[in-house]
């Protein structure tokens, strides 16, 4: 991914989406998912302010980011539940922003790594996730 604000957001949103998908599998995960999402918003707010975005428009940017996160969450949830083509399409649209990646195997590599991370998250206890551990 490019080392840009958008590239960083896209990767953070991808990993965050996988964690939130894992948390929604358990009723006890809802509160943790809400706190994690609040942390994400707080962090994104701080990042935008560090970039020099003023108070007046920070809220609009955060609103757009949350909408983008919601879209990615739905796309990755559906993509992980389906066949590779659905997840590939979600990755091209959300991670690569519609631009074909440089290498022909890039999407497959990211898809496989996302599936692997999703499976490892599924195997983790809620207690370990609550402590902030990630596989």
Give a brief outline of the structure.
The chain has one domain. 76% of the residues lie in helices and 0% in strands. The chain has helices spanning 5-23, 29-50, 55-81, 84-94, 106-123, 126-130.
Describe the structure.
- By secondary structure, the chain is mostly helical.
- The chain has one domain (5-130).
- It is built from six helices and no strands.
- It has helices spanning 5-23, 29-50, 55-81, 84-94, 106-123, 126-130.
- Helix 1 packs antiparallel against helix 2 (29-50), helix 2 packs across helix 3 and helix 3 packs antiparallel against helix 4 (84-94).
- The radius of gyration is 15 Å and the shape is globular.
- The protein starts with a helix and ends in a 5-residue tail after the last helix.
- The mean pLDDT is 91.
Structural class: mainly alpha
The sequence of SSEs as H and E is: HHHHHH
The quaternary organization reads as single chain
Please state the overall shape, judged from the principal axes of the Cα atoms: globular
What is the residue-averaged pLDDT? 91
Strand tally: 0
- In percent, how helical is the residue content? over 70%
Strand coverage percent:
under 5%
Instruction: Report the total helices.
Output: 6
The low-pLDDT segments are none
- Rg over CA atoms, rounded to whole Å, is 15 Å
Distance between the termini: 21 Å
Total number of domains:
1
Instruction: Sketch the major β-sheet.
Output: none
């Amino acid at each position: 991914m490019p080392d840009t604000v958008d590239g960083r957001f896209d990767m953070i949103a991808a990993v965050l989406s996988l964690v939130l998908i894992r948390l929604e599998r358990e009723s006890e995960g809802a509160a943790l998912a809400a706190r994690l999402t609040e942390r994400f918003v707080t962090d994104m707010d701080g990042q935008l302010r560090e970039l020099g975005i003023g108070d007046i428009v920070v809220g609009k940017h955060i609103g757009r980011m949350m909408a983008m996160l919601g879209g990615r969450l739905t796309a990755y949830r559906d993509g992980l539940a389906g066949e590779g083509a659905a997840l590939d399409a979600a990755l091209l649209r959300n991670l690569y922003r519609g631009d074909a990646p440089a290498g022909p195997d890039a999407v497959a590599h990211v898809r496989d790594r996302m599936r692997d991370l999703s499976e490892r998250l599924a195997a983790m206890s809620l207690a370990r996730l609550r402590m902030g551990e990630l596989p």
